[in-house]
Design goal:
The protein is of the alpha/beta class. The chain has a single domain, classed as HUPs (Rossmann fold), CATH 3.40.50.620. Helices cover 37% and strands 12% of the residues. It has nine helices and seven strands; from the N terminus they run E-H-E-H-E-H-H-E-H-H-E-H-E-E-H-H. It has a four-stranded parallel sheet. It has a three-stranded parallel sheet with strand order 1-2-3. The N and C termini lie far apart (38 Å).
């Protein structure tokens, strides 16, 4: 499971998802757009239905990518623990998160249940240092009764140890893309053409006339 606001989805998201899928030999990567991200302001969010549709367009044609509307259909804040509970029947779950998100995990709703339902795959952000033995990381591991990080590789046995994967990433940010859309600037080579076309056709992130 790879959740996020996807506001909008871009090649940075897709590259990380593809590399995790390939490295771990996953059967499926389920991208889950959040309807109401509990830890992000809603002021610049495009409507959930539009972000879901852009995510569908972005993954079209990838044999192992799928988009879920489980959070779009659910009312209230999009808590990951509720989503993982809803997805239990899909099989053994991995949860793909950034290293900044991992360090904030203790502030999530029921983080102990989150790590019981899914194995964490932690991706350090492009250009950011992440020390898995730093006090902040060790505190999260200790509070959630997790062992130290294991290497992310196809032959790693099942277990509770979170995986640390230094995936290739691109220096693309949603805030920059929203600003470009607002200013009518180029979105080329930053997201799939179909997503850029949808964004323009639906006047997303543009100021009200």
């Amino acid at each position: 499971m790879f959740g996020g606001s996807f506001n909008p989805i871009h090649f940075g998201h897709l590259l990380v998802a593809d590399e995790v899928c390939e490295t771990l030999g996953l059967d499926r990567v389920l991208l889950v757009p959040a309807a109401q991200p509990p830890h992000k302001p809603l002021t610049e969010l495009a409507p959930a239905a539009d972000r879901y549709r852009m995510t569908e367009l972005a993954v079209r044609g990838h044999p192992r990518f799928e988009v879920s509307d489980v959070e779009v259909k659910r009312s209230g804040p999009s808590y990951t623990v509720d989503t993982l509970i809803a997805l239990q029947s899909r099989g053994r779950l991995h949860l793909i998160i950034g290293s900044e998100t991992f360090l904030d995990l203790l502030n999530w709703k029921d983080p102990g249940r989150v790590v019981a339902l899914a194995r964490l795959v932690v991706i350090p952000r492009n250009g950011m240092d992440f020390d898995p033995e730093a006090p902040a990381a060790v505190k999260v591991l200790r509070e959630l009764a997790l062992p130290g990080f294991g290497p992310a590789a196809p032959d790693v046995p099942d277990g509770a140890a979170p995986l640390l994967l230094y995936a290739a990433s691109l220096p693309i940010s949603g805030s920059d893309l929203r600003r470009r859309a607002r200013e009518g600037r180029s979105l080329a080579f930053r997201m799939p053409d179909a997503v850029a076309a949808y964004l323009r056709d639906h006047h997303l992130y543009r100021p009200e006339a």
